[in-house]
Structures are given as structure tokens and as C-alpha cells.
Amino acid sequence: MNKLYTFIRDFRSIIVIPLVLILLSFTACEDNSDQIDPVDALDEEGLFILNEGMFTFGNASLSFYNPSDELVEDQVFFRANNTPLGDVAQSITVHGDYAYLVINNSGIIYKVERSSGHFVEKYSGFSSPRNMLIVDQHKAYVSDLYSHHLSVFDPNGYEYFGRIELGRSSEEMLLFQNKVFVANWSKLNQETNNNMVLVVDVQTDALIDSIEVGIEPNSMELDSEGNLWVLCSGGYDNVEAPTLWKINANSHEPILSLAFENENSNPKDLAINGSADSLYFVNQHLFAMSTQADKLPAESFIPAASMNFYALTVDSKSGDIYVSDALNYMVNGRIYRYSASGRPLGNFQAGIIPGSFAFNR
Amino acid sequence: MISSKLKYLILLVLLSCSSAVWSQMILDTLNLMEFEVLGSRTLHRETFNKTKIDSISKKEYDHLSLDDLLSAGAPVFIKNYGRGAASSISLRGSGASHTQVLWNGFNINSPMMGQSDLSQIPNFFFDEVSIAYGGGALAHTPGAIGGSVSINSGPSDKKLPVLQVEQLVGSFSTLSTHLSVNLGNEVFQSSSRFLYLDSENDFSYYNDAILPASEMKRENAQYGRYGFSQQFSYQPNNKHELVLTSWNQWNERNIPQIMTNVDKSGSHDEYQNDFSSRTVLSWKYHKKNNLVSIKSAYFIEKQHYFLSTADKDISAPIPIFDTDNTSKSILVKSFYQRTLPKLWVLSAGLDLSQYIVQSESYAEDKQRKQLDFNLKVRKQFLNRIIFESVVRSQWVDQRPLTFMPYLGLNYRVLSGKELFLKFSMAYNQKLPSLNDLYWVPSGNENLKTEKALLIDGGMSFETMLGSHLKLNLEASAYYSDIDDWIQWAPSSFGFFTPQNLQSVVARGLEIQSGFNTRINQLKIEGVLQYAYTRTTDESAQAQQDGYAGRQLIYIPVHTMNAFVYVDYYGFSLRWHLDIVGKRTTSYNDSESLNNSLPTHHIHKVSLGKGIHLQKLDLALKFRVNNVFDQDYQVLALRPMPGRNYEIILSLAIH
Q1: Cβ–Cβ gap A108/B263 under 8 Å
Q2: Strand B147-152 and strand B99-103: pairing?
Q3: What DSSP string runs through A317-346?
Q4: Cα(B372)–Cα(B388) distance, rounded to whole angstroms?
Q5: Angstrom distance (rounded) from CA A126 to CA B565
Q6: A189 to chain B: nearest residue by CA?
Q7: Residues of A in contact with B309 (CB under 8 A)
Q8: What is the ipTM of this complex?
Q9: In this model, does residue B15 exceed pLDDT 50?
Q10: Buried b (16+ CB within 10 A) or exposed e, B619-643
């Protein structure tokens, strides 16, 4: 102890060195707190844009666009709740006073107020949730990339009802009368081909039929004549040529199957206008076709030029088309707005990989 | 408000001054008796910038892995996915695969990944580590656009203890045991090292990345490793040296969810188990002005990755990935050096490499054959100027690459003074990794090699203040222009795919300074290192999409570390500070909301006492990590532990 005492007495200046390190480290502190602007009230007629963010980066976000004044609110969820939205925001569903945000790689669904973005409730326990479909006031289905079933629950209070066995993974869902069409998009975790549209009875919550289509059905729409349109990419590994299918939604019989010429192309994001007689999809460029057509459009409706078209939606009221440009997938994307005739109406910035839309109505 | 850059500058100047001021105070007040060099930070006669990690830091971090040691001992940024998780290095604003890690001269970067997971390289298994920055790395290996990290475990000229046992007990149920046995005489030596590590790694953290925010325990983050190394060396005379070294290791690691994903599924299970065995046989012959070296090596690495998940109310988990990868490397290195009159040194090397990969993630087994030829010339003029030139050429699968030249100069400014100026230029190329080319589904066989023009200039200065205090300062500025930078980016199908996307320009500054002294029984050493790094994508794509000129993701503009070590009558105190500046997490503007990680500054303190009892050494050390319990993340959404503790007991028999 004497030696230690002598050391302290003689060399006390050395003790100061760590103190200097401490003090100077605080000198180097930056003001790290983000200044967060509150979210303004979200307009009834506006458009939600759900931005996927980068896989495992946890930088998904929610943007909001008001077409009347052309103002954009970005990072709505973060600003309303001071929390990041999560990892890979897959889809958004608006119902009643709420918006449901399916966060795929976080395995959760956030329920938020659609007027403010404020958090209401969180649903968890999914493997890899993809889409949520409101079946009626008290029942919702959630599709899943890994699990071979749909989860069924009450979106009002998160009462879990159980699951509907499909034997396959599930993706986009579409409600038609008393049944739901479910696309079997991914072949991850399944031995069979991913080339089916499954049919579920909403009254019995049971699988009742399946319709064979092309490989990797990625999106579906219903036209004004009761036909189901299914767009299939042909597989990420180009197993076959992409195809567009027209199916009688009542009988489940295929009416038409149109193959794309280029096997390496990747058509996706089928959308339909308000009168349900014009289809749109992205295949590098933006294409449009009538539901009466019996062949694929030869020319693009809106050329992409240098843009990287990623996802689209059509306003059922105005007919305006919104298509996202994901740029390099690592920087905020942009949304381009066109009239039904294809006239440019402006563009605005969204978040990283804008991949899903929903109108706030 | 003072800008962050200015604050760093002030900090740097103050710390540099403080080292000298405190040292001067000691000089003024003490009767100085003797001097001992405690560590050498710089290798100033090189023509390029190089850091050698000092022995005090090496010893301090012996129970940890190479990522921790490099982070503490050099002005570099370590991308750390969390405590015990994977980590990689970014040298001079480059990517992880741009740094080649060499063990006893052989590249140990995974042939599949093209990079090393530094968290799986235990410091205990090697004795020395040094970093060659930028173009200077061409002296060691091709393809090291950012630089190279050399770790070596060779025959020791020091008298090592016959038996040494160390036991660490730490927070989060962490146990680490080291055992080494050293036997032999001047002709034959055997060195054996055994290692065991296990950690529950279940630290608490505040998760504010998911709603509702709450205090949580890190789950599924356990990790462990065990292994041994064995070295036999035979030196029948001062001409021949034969060394056999084998390093064998088993790693087990669970992979936790990122903070936004902790609610994912009912029973998430993700882990990775690895095995690696690396053996090198080397023969060295030295006679007069000739040096011949032939080394051969065989490496095998096995990796098993498993991921399963489950919904609520489903008992059987769904396996998502259950894959095995094996890579084998057969390597031969031959080297001849001749020292000629008038201070000319010529050397030539020929390396043969074959990599074989069997992976369930490839469509078929893949292999790569490489032949690397290098020629070096070094000339010294009048003890003032050193000129060095290296030319490398590499044949890969019989396709020739262009030459990779290096030119370097070292100039002593004043005769007899240890003040040097350095300048170097190099042109380097890096091959795509086998994953870049063949990974299913997203490998890209059309990838081009990455190409880099590397320019470096700097100075080094070393002096004695009085007869007992040694000061050194080294500063370098560099400019790197990297074309066809390979980047894994999301694609339209949703998965990541590699592309020659970027034209990256990196420029920056590195400063390393230190002092050491010994006054009676008092030893003091201090080190301060700082790096300023600006790395931007200047490609046409970046210009078009509006992110040209922005700092690349996860490359901090400022990094700094400093430590002070004091030893007095066997009592030792080491105070360490790491500062990592703000870094962006996407290509968006750095001021965008939720787009950057803040600066963190982490203090570590250790206090120890050693006792010598004839043939027995006993030592006890107590260490506090993250002294001020800072809540921080190195990579976004991967929490790091708060304040935690370790006790290390060491026993050595001579």
C-alpha cells in the first residue's frame, strides 16, 4: 500500500490523463437528437405509400401524399411514434379508421390511425406476413411467405381465430363474393411448383379449390365482367415465360393465357382502373391494356426511360396512375403521377423502395 | 454551435498536446534513470503507411478476437454486428472484401465470401499483427485495395513460459480459458495453445425500435468457440529454419434478431457453426546475401447455417435454410531475395493457389486456380532515400490480368534525424469472390474485377525528449479511385445481387501519435490515433439518382482511439477510449430522419497486478467495458452491451 500511496503522491498528474480522455470524449459529442416535426392531419383523399426499406436494415417508412395540394409527408410512422417502422414493409391495408401495415421481416402488423399515423395496436406471431385482407367487419386474413396457411383474426381487437391450411405459401389475396383468391407466389419452403391460385371459402374458412396458372403468380385483379386476372412472372430464375391469365372468377375456368415474348422479363404489379376495364402492369416500362384484349400490348404506355419502375396503383376515382421509381433500391425513391391518358402530372419523393399503396378513404 | 469537424480537430490537438504536456511534467519533476522502449507504433522505414499493434494492446485483448484488437489499436472502422457476432473491417473507406487478412503470409479471406469474419480470429492464436494501408499492401498480396492485415505466429526469440493458464470470467455468463505449453531448446521448439470460450451473451438493452418500447434481454445470441494451435520449429543452425504450424478451431454462434424483428414468429432459431483447419509448412534458408523461402499450406473451412421459424400455436418449426458449405485451399508460396552491393535488394516470388468450394448454394462445385508472380526492387541511396518498386501479375483460371505495379519513396529529411517523408502510387485489382460469381440465385458471372488507383503521401517523425521520453508522430493522406466496385444491391426480384455499380473515390487522413517512457519502476505509454475518411460514389448512376458526393453507408467520417497505459511496481492501469463518428445507414442525405447512427465514445478501463515468484508469475486483472454505460449500436438495430465486467487470472510457470 505504501508503494501505491507513493505512486499517487508523486505521479498524481498521470491520474489526470484518463480524466482528460473522459472530458475530451464529451467535447466530441454531437447533438445526436433528431428534430422531429409532428405529422399534420392526413387528408381523407390522400395516398399512403409504404416504403419497403432495405432487407435487414430496418429502414422501412410510411409516406403520405395529398393530391389536392401536392404536399408530401415523409416518415409518417417515425414522426408520429418516434420509432422506426421496421424491416421490410410489405403491404398496407386501409379499413375503417385504421391503416394496417404489414412488416414482413419484423413478423408484425402495426395498426395505426389513418388520420395521424399514431400507433394503436401490434399483431405478432407470424412467420413472414405478406398481405392482409379485410374479409368483413370482424375477420381478416394474413398471407405468409413461409407458413402454409392463412392466419385468421379479428382486426378490431386482435382475437386470433386460427388458420386456414393451404399446403403452400401465400401472397396476394382478392375477395370476390364469398371467396378469396390467394396467389401462391413463392416456392420457398414448398416442394411443389408455385403455380397456383388457391380458393378459400370465407364462410367456412376452408380451402375449396385451386387453379393452375403460370409460375410465380405475383398480382391479381378482378374486372367489371367478373373475370380474375393473374400476372405470373415465370420465376425469378426464369423457369418459363411470364404469363397473364384471364380466369372466370365464378367457374374458376381459364379463359385466356398470354405469354410474354421475353422469358427474362419480370412483369409485376397488376392494377386496374376504377371502372375495372383497363389493366396496368410494370414490365420495365408501364403497360396498359383493355380487359377485352386478347393479346399483350406491343408498345409501352409510359416508357421508363432511365427510371426503375417498381410498383404502381391506379386511383379508382380520378383514374390517375401512380408508379414508383425505386432508383438503386438504397436511396429514397420517387413517385410519378400520370393522368389516365398518360399525361405527366408531377412527381414527388417517397422513402426507400416504395412498394405498396393505399388510398386514405 | 461548434461544428462536429471543428470539435474533432480540437479534440485531436488537445489530446496530442496532452500526451506531450503530461510527459514533459514528468520529465520536469522526476529523476530519470533509464529508458526502455515499451512498444513501437510505426515502421518508419517503409515507403507506405503501416501500423504495428503494440504488445500492450495485444496482451490486453488476448481473450478477444481480431476485430476488437484492430478497433482498439488502429485508426480503422470495424463493422460489428453485435457482441460475439460477425464483424469486418473497413480500411480507408473501402469495403470488407477490400482488406485481405494474411496469416503467416497466406490469405485467409474466405474464397466464398472474399472477406474474413474477424470475430472468429482469436488473438490468442497469433503473436503479431500489423496493417499495411492502401497501395503498400501490394508488397504482401494482390487485391487488397483498402489494405492488408497481417497476423503472424512464428518461432519466438523470447523465452516463453513452459506453462501458462489464463481464466477469464465476465458478465453475461462469459468464460474464456487459455492454456499454452512451450517446450524445447535453441534447435527445436514446440508451442501448443488451447482455447475455450463460451458466453450466454444475454445482456439487457432498451429496445426503442419496436412498439411498445421496453427493456429487453438479448435472446438467441449465445456464442462459443474452442480450438488449438500447434507449432513445431526446427532451427539446426542459423541458415535453415523449418516450421510447421496448425490452427484448428470450432465456432458455434446463435444469430439474434435485429431490434425491429424481436417479435418475429413463435420460435425463431438461427445459428451458424463453423470449423476451420489451417496448416502451414515452411522452410527458410538464409546464407550471406541470399534468402530462400518455400511455404505450403492446406486450409479447410466448413460452415453450417440453419434458420427455422414457426408461427404461434405451431409446435414444429419450419426450416427455411439448412445449408452446408465447404471450401478447401491448397497454396504454395516461393520467395527468393538477394541483397546486392550498393544497397540494392532484389526479390521474386511465385505463388500457386487452388480453391475448391462445395456449396449447397451453388449449382455445382466451383474452383479457382491462381498463379501470382511478383518482383520487388528496393534501393537505398546514401541512407537518405529508399526507393521501392513492386510489380505483380496474376493469372486466374489461365486468364491473365493486367500488371499491378507499386512505386514508393521514403526520404529522410535531415541526416541523423528520424524525420521521413513518404510517397507511393499503386494500381491494384481485386477479383470477384466465388459467391459474387456463383451464388444461387443471384450470383453474377459477368462481373468485372475491381480496379483501384491508390496514391499515398505522408511523414513520420520520432524523437527523444531528453534521454527517457520517446515521441512519435505519423501522418498520411491518401486518394483512392476505385472503379467497378462490386456491390450487392437489391434487385427487382427482391433479393440482393452483385453488380459492378460504383465508381468510388476515397480520400482521407490518418494520424498516429504516441509516447512512451520509463522512469524507475514507472512505465507509461500513450497512443492517439485518428482517421478522417471521405468515401463517395461518383458513378454516372449516382449522379443521375442524386446521391453522388454522399458518404457511403456505414463509413464514419471520423474515427479515433486513444489509450494510456501506466505500470508501477506491477500495478497496471490501462484507460482506453474509442470514438466512432456519425455514419449513414442508407444513401439518403445524412440529415434525413432515421438515416444515421450517432457518434459513440466508449471507455474501457483495466486495472491489474502482477507478481513474480522465482519461476512463477501470477497476475490478476479487472476490466470494465463501456464504463459510462452508453447505449449504442455499431450497426443499426444491433444493440451493444452496457457497462460490463471481466476478471482475468493468469498463472505462468517458467
Answers
A1: yes
A2: parallel
A3: TT--EEEEE-TTSSSEEEEEEE-TT--EEE
A4: 19
A5: 52
A6: B320
A7: 127-128, 146
A8: 0.89
A9: no
A10: bebebbbbbeeeebbbbbbbbbbbe
